[in-house]
Amino acid sequence: MKKIEDIVKDEGIWRYCTKDNIDIALKSKVFFRRNVKGYNFNNRLQKSKKYKLMDKLVDEILDYDLCSEYEAFDIESLNSNEKKVFEERDIIDRNSEVKYIILSDDERTYFRLGDEDHIILTINNPGCIFDDAFDIADQILSNISKKFKYAFLPEFGYLTANPKNAGTGYQMVITCHLVGIVTLGTLNDLISELKRKGFTISSSWINDYYSIYNDVSLGFTEAELYEAANRIFMDIIDKERDSREKIYVLNKNSIEDKVWRSIGILKSARMVSLFEALDLLSKIRFGISLGIIKKPTIKDINTLLYFIQDAHILKRFGLSDDLNSKNSNNDTIIDENRATLLRNFLKEVT
Known about the structure:
Layout: H1 4-7, E1 25-34, H2 47-63, E2 71-74, H3 80-88, E3 100-103, E4 109-113, E5 119-126, H4 131-145, E6 152-153, E7 157-158, E8 170-177, H5 179-184, H6 187-196, E9 199-203, E10 209-214, H7 222-250, H8 252-268, H9 274-289, H10 298-307, H11 310-316, H12 328-349
Antiparallel strand pairs: 1-5, 1-8, 2-3, 3-4, 4-5, 6-7, 8-10, 9-10
């Protein structure tokens, strides 16, 4: 049985090596939203009925061969710090009202049950990979539908709590490290361009990274949405790569200095705040992408984006959950342990 203490030490999706533009595309996700026919949406469903439905869904999902090794977590049974571990891995949102998380061992596949919609199945990949997501989701959702019929109308498609998500019921998301576009000052132009095409860009759960996703799925066929999203995502990756090359040509010495300084600080610092660590790792990641340094690798940096988060630090080092409260002395203890983790990790991989 996988516990929270195991999750905070696990690479998750970063255990897989990929060359699918991973220097720019941190990860790609597809959300598949379904609601069970005959039940109100969660925001209008009586709590007792909601919980009974969620319990039935958990049993049905775990009974399916493909999901039989997945682990179910009752979010309400977790303390605030344990719940934050899932937030830090971008599995749930801070204000989420999810009842259950059902998680595969590698974190590529997970369910949120009882959130905005009854079922939100997510297929999660490193880099820019979407192809296998639809095959996996189709197998799982088809199996669930044998017992639970989905709310569906021919003229609207799958019905969802937010009408924007109705129709295909899926949303494609890519999270990118857009340091080049931001530095060149062209982010606002990109935002406007994406808005005209029905896509949104927003800050992700980690600084310097941005999530891009289709704002509406209603009115598109699955093939149309898939093709449009892939075309837009690849265009953003190309724009970012061009921006990085322009910046490097103009500021070669300055950029190389920042990269080497960043890795030097993290290899020797005795206290590092989360904000500083993320900023320095962003610079190092940029340097790896430009070929300035070879080690650590992109995979190493991605893994650290999980490991250095506050709740991960508390669980990894066996510190009291109370330390996550706002207190300067508590911050010092977390920052000291974060620095220790970074020094030891980088010593092993460089």
